[in-house]
Amino acid sequence: VQLQASGGGLVQPGGSLRLSCTASVDTLDNFVVAWYRQAPGKEREGVSCISSTSDSNTYYANFVKGRFAISRADAKNTVYLQMNSLKPEDTAVYYCATEPGIYCPGLRYEYIVWGQGTLVTVSS
Question: Is 6 strand, coil or helix?
């Protein structure tokens, strides 16, 4: 499996972006998919996770709860991260990651497969 993250860009504080994570397989239904981010000079941190369609649960880091939403697209090989009410501190390279499984393993987990990252810059 290979992942391609896209949708990053420059947005003003309070704005929105939708990131996409597209896989090289036909479906991610039996995969757990997560989003992580890494800001300049900081460690990578987990943002959100969506479990397989067998479980259908979502999880968020406290710093994005109520602002970000992870979901599966109608195209079964894509997962979105909708980011609303963006803040300057959300500026980072965002990565998606995945591996086969049912349940999200937590937001500190080292996944097997990672995408290449997409840069999100929140600035006026």
Answer: strand
Q: What CA–CA distance (Å, rounded) separates 115 from 15? A: 24
Q: Using CA atoms, how far apart are residues 31 and 66, in angstroms rounded to an integer?
A: 24
Q: How many C-beta atoms lie closer than 10 Å to residue 24's C-beta?
A: 10
Each residue of 89-111: pLDDT tens digit? 999 999 999 999 999 998 999 99
Distance of CA 61 to the CA centre of its chain: 11
Cα first-last separation, the chain: 37
27-44: pLDDT as tens digits: 999 999 999 999 999 999
Phi, psi of 21, rounded to the nearest 5 degrees:
-125, 110
Question: Taking Cα atoms as reference points, which of 13, 7, 1 lies closest to residue 91?
Answer: 13
Shortest CA distance to 31 belongs to which of 21, 39, 41? 21
